[in-house]
Each structure stands twice: as C-alpha cells, then as structure tokens.
Amino acid sequence: MLVRHGETPTTGKVLPGRAPGLHLSERGREQARAVAQRLAGVPVSAIYTSPMERTRETAVPSERATGLTARTEQDLIECDFGDWTGENLTDLMKLPEWSTVQRAPSSFRFPNGESFSRMQSRTVDAVDRAREAHPGGVVVCFSHADPLKAVLAHALGTHLDLFQRIVVDPCSVSVIAYHPGQAPAVLRVNSTDGPLASLIPP
Question: What count of other Cβ atoms lies within 10 Å of the Cβ of residue 153?
C-alpha cells in the first residue's frame, strides 16, 4: 500500500521538496488518523516511511493502530527539486521548463537536483526491497506525490513521460499486489475513503 503524506500549510502552493521543517497542518493530521482507521482489519506486516517530517507524522496514527514501528527508508524521500525547492508553484508554471516537466519528464533534471528517471528508479527499488523483505505480507509505504506516481506508472507499465496523468492526493492510498511470476496488479489508485481490508485476499 502506498500512502501520500497528509496536507501541510504549503500543499498546492509551494514546491517544498526536501527542505526540512515542514509539518502537517491540522487537516493533514486528521487525514493521517483517517488512514489509520481505514487500515482496520488489514494484517500489516511492516510500515516504511520517507525521512521527511510530514511523512513520518502521517505514519504515526498507523503505527499506533497496528502496533508497528515505522522503518525509515531513505529512497522513499521526495524528489530533489534542486534550485526549485521552496519556489511558488504559480511562478514555476511560468517557466519554459515547466512544459517539459509535464510532457516529457523522463528527459528532465531539476537544476542542481534530481532527474525524474533517477527518482523513479530508486523509489521502485525501495518498494521492491520492502515487499521482498516481507514475502506474502502487507507493506505500507508513506511517501510523496511524485515518487508514488512514478511507482504506480512503473507497476502499470506506463512510460514515465505519462506519469503526470496519475493523481495522488494527500493521504490517498494506492494498492499494488505483487505475485511471483506475474506482472503487478494495481488494485487502487488515489483512494481516499472506505475500509481497505476488503482488498486483502483471505
């Protein structure tokens, strides 16, 4: 299960990236509690989280609900936006490079930052390591919008240039089932309400 962190005071306004010190808003904390409630009845084997404050805070209610301690996974961290870190989205949208970010992200590297291709590679690897460490189990990974969209695109067999078409809202849950010898099965994308236990085979 892939969970985006909850809302922060800058969600939808600023590109925070890896800048430290950004915490959940009250709305974000409510969303995090709702995720924990949705996990009722799910036999969670492990919880992994990006090292950023907002993802770790989002995982706390789920830790309490499951009795598990989240493991920090560095490769679940947000994309390194380099010089764009902390910039207003309205200003970034005016740049000529913004079109490349939206239409051909596989060819784009943020100035003094990370490429989308690198972001996808290390995030997919992180998810693979987590699931392989818990064969047959349910693993919950708390991360960020772009890394999670990139993982979903990979699971869907969709080219990275099309990953911006995938929507991952704050505290939404996306579910991928992995079975040996089979292609991944994407069971849910951007799910924001309802229990999740029904998605787990008996």
Answer: 22
Q: Which two tokens stand for residue 144?
A: 């960020």
Tokens of 27: 């709305």
Half-sphere exposure of 85 (CA within 13 A, CB side): 15
Q: DSSP secondary-structure letter at 46?
A: E
Say how many C-beta atoms besides its own lie within 10 A of residue 100's C-beta. 15
pLDDT tens-digit profile of 103-114? Answer: 999 999 999 999
SS3 of 177, please? strand
Q: Is the pTM of this model over 0.90?
A: yes
Each residue's pLDDT tens digit, 189-199: 999 999 999 88
55-99 pLDDT, tens digit each: 999 999 999 999 999 999 999 999 999 999 999 999 999 999 999
- Output b/e per residue, 105-133; b: 16+ Cβ within 10 A: beebebeebbbbeebbebbbebbeebbee
Query: Would you say the C-alpha torsion 148, 153, 156, 162 has a positive or negative sign?
Result: positive
Q: Which of 136, 117, 133 is nearest to 178 (CA)?
A: 136
Residue 163, classed as helix, strand or coil, is helix
